[in-house]
Write a structure and sequence with these properties.
Elements lengths: L1 E3 L4 E4 L1 E7 L3 E8 L3 E9 L4 E10 L4 E11 L4 E8 L3 E11 L2 E10 L9 E8 L2
Antiparallel strand pairs: 1-2, 3-4, 4-5, 5-6, 6-7, 7-8, 8-9, 9-10, 10-11
Length: 129
């Protein structure tokens, strides 16, 4: 909650609840009574993880939906994929090159405007000391 002392009124009212167990996490939230959502993460197996995210905005009466997964290829490499209700497809590959050095390649493809371009590509090199 946020309270504006100058106006003596509550300016924000956010509420969230979460639950975690060994193989899944559930999270729900409400922001200012106008935005609602939740997510579910599940570790399906040792190598496969999945998640779903849902949201709804009362102001614009719009919904959000996305689903994603992560698959471990081996101890040092994994692939990720996600898709949402705007037909955006995200793909990623992550490789640990050695202890403390990780390389990530990613892309975000706009499925609705595939021929128009505007897709994104990313490259990250993470160094840990």
């Amino acid at each position: 909650m946020a309270f504006d002392t100058a106006k003596s009124k509550l300016t924000k009212n956010n509420f969230a609840v979460g639950f975690t167990s060994q193989d899944f996490t559930l999270h729900t939230y409400a922001n200012d009574g106008a935005e609602f959502g939740g997510s579910l993460y599940h570790k399906i197996s040792r190598d496969l993880e999945g998640a779903v995210d849902l949201g709804w905005s009362a102001n614009s009466n719009t919904t959000r939906f996305s689903i994603g997964c992560k698959y471990a290829l081996d101890r040092d490499a994994c692939v990720r994929a996600k898709v949402n209700n705007k037909s955006e497809v995200g793909l990623g590959y992550q490789q640990r090159l050695r202890e403390g050095v990780t390389l990530t390649l990613s892309t975000l493809i706009d499925g609705k405007n595939f021929n128009q371009g505007g897709h994104k590509i990313g490259l990250a090199l993470e160094l840990e000391a």
